[in-house]
Amino acid sequence: MTHDDRLSGVLANARVIFFDFDGPVCDVFAGLPAPEVAKQLTALLAAQDEAAGAKAAETDDPIEVMRIAHEAGDEIGRTVEQALTAAEVEAVAVAGPPTPGAVEALEAVRASGRAVAVVSNNSAECVQRFLEKHGLGELVAKVIGRPSGQPHLMKPNPFPLIGAAKQMQMDVTHCTLIGDSLTDIQAAHAARTKVIGYANKPHKADLFADAGADAVTDDMQAIADALTTA
User: Fold this and answer.
1) Which H or E run contains 215?
2) Residue 118 CB contacts under 8 Å (≥ 6 apart), including other chains
């Protein structure tokens, strides 16, 4: 297990902890595979724009398909985004339990006197549905999903983090993000907030370290443990 000794130090000065959703809290497409969703969205897009559909067929990432749809036009972008949101809501209903250690981490944040905001490129609707399903709503102060109709403002753009900090009435530099993708690291750097890379796949530990993550861990329970000493 990779348990970065810097975790406690990174968390010590954070007053608000931002959690990315897909990864640190939930494996969104565990029960409804992302490639299947991407294929459905691509078919919807291709029916309206053949060239955009061909481009989308090259990815198995539903969110990337949505980006391509918005590039093709506002109307088809909205249509594909609505379909993605519906698929995400369906997916979290069958996604299974929260990420191991996630509940403990959320509880530890509250016990330490800090607050949680979930900041995600997934829809706010699917995040809220999952939190409600698993009785986690009271542990999360704010849910900031992707900006509707504005995929260019999703992470790695710092916009969601800056907006979350404002909603929490907190200087963004007093926040820490926990994320499992390179875009999380990039968004945090751009927002001037600390970032912990959650390396839920072996190759990510080096990737996040090289990208300048302030700390790296492969275990969400380690977040909970560090918060007891931060």
Assistant:
1) strand 215-217
2) 18, 19, 20, 21, 25, 127, 131, 140, 142, 143, 144
Show contacts of 131-135: CB within 8 Å, 24+ apart. 133/92, 133/93, 134/97, 134/98, 134/103
Gap between the Cα atoms of 176 and 227, Å rounded: 12
pLDDT tens per residue across all 230 residues of the chain: 344 678 999 999 899 999 999 999 999 999 999 999 999 999 999 999 999 999 999 999 999 999 999 999 999 999 999 999 999 999 999 999 999 999 999 999 999 999 999 999 999 999 999 999 999 999 999 999 999 999 999 999 999 999 999 999 999 999 999 999 999 999 999 999 999 999 999 999 999 999 999 999 999 999 999 998 75
SS3 72: helix
Torsion of CA 196, 165, 191, 86, to 10 degrees: 80
Cβ pair 159, 153 in contact under 8 A: yes
Closest CA to 89 of 41, 126, 130, 133: 126
- The residues near 115 (Cβ < 8 Å, ≥ 6 apart) are 15, 16, 17, 109, 141, 168
What are residue 18's DSSP bridge partners? 117, 177
What CA–CA distances, in Å, run from 5 to 15, 24, 65, 174?
A: 20, 19, 38, 20
Task: Tell me how long the chain is.
Answer: 230
Asked whether the beta carbons of 34 and 61 are under 8 A apart, the reply is yes
